[in-house]
Amino acid sequence: MRRRKDDEPPVPEDCTTCGACCFSTLPEYIRVFGIDHERMDDTAQALTHFVGNRCFMKIEDGHCAALRLDPVEGRFLCSIYAMRPDCCRALDRGSGACRGELHEKRERPLIALERLRRG
Ligand code: SF4
Ligand code: SF4
After folding, report:
1. How do residues 62-84 score in pLDDT, each as one tens digit?
2. DSSP state of 90
3. Which of 7, 77, 89, 90 is deepest in the core (most CB within 10 A)?
4. What is the rounded average pLDDT of the residues 22-32?
5. Is 8 contained in some domain?
6. 22 CB under 6 A from ligand 2?
7. How far is CA 62 from CA 21, 38, 45, 90, 118, in A?
8. Is residue 10 part of a domain?
9. Looking at the domain assignment, is residue 1 inside a domain?
C-alpha cells in the first residue's frame, strides 16, 4: 500500500467535500472540446468562453464558473455535472492527478467557503 507523506493532504472520501480540482485562476484551465460543447445545454454553454478558436470553462472567483459552493453544508457541487467536460470526468479521486491537485490547492476551497460564511 502506498504510504502518504506527512505533508500530503489526505484524499477526501467524497469529492463534494473537496472541490480542489475545480479551482484555478487561469482562464485556459478547463478545456472544452467540440464533443464537450455539443453535450452542453444553453445554460452550460453560457459558462464557457473562447480564447481564439479554443473553448474553456469560464473562471469566476478563483474557480470554474460551474462550481457551486454551499457554505452551510460545506459542499462543492458541479452545476453541470451530467454535462461536464471530459477532462473533469477523467480526473479520478485518489489518482496521481487528484493528489497533485490536493497538494497544490487543497486550501483554496476551504478559504473560499470561509469567505462566504463571513459574508
Ligand atoms: S478528484 Fe481529487 S482534487 Fe478533485 S474534488 Fe475529488 S478529491 Fe478533490
Ligand atoms: S465543469 Fe464541473 S467538474 Fe469541471 S471544473 Fe467545472 S465545476 Fe468542476
Report:
1. 999 999 999 999 999 999 999 99
2. T
3. 77
4. 98
5. no
6. yes
7. 11, 26, 19, 21, 17
8. no
9. no
Q: Which of 107, 99, 117 is nearest to 62 (CA)?
A: 107
Q: Does 106 fall in a domain?
A: yes
Q: How far, in Å, from the CA of 9 to the mean position of ligand 2? A: 21
Give the ligand whose atoms come closest to the C-alpha of residue 105. Answer: 1
DSSP state for residue 47 in the 8-state scheme: T
Domain that holds residue 104: 15-118
pLDDT digits 0-9 by tens, 37-53: 999 999 999 999 999 99
Query: What letter represents residue 69's amino acid?
Result: L
Q: Mean pLDDT score of the chain, rounded to an integer?
A: 94
Domain count of the chain? 1
For residues 54-61, average pLDDT:
98
- Ligand 2 pocket check for 88: Cβ under 6 Å: yes
Nearest bound ligand to CA 64? 2
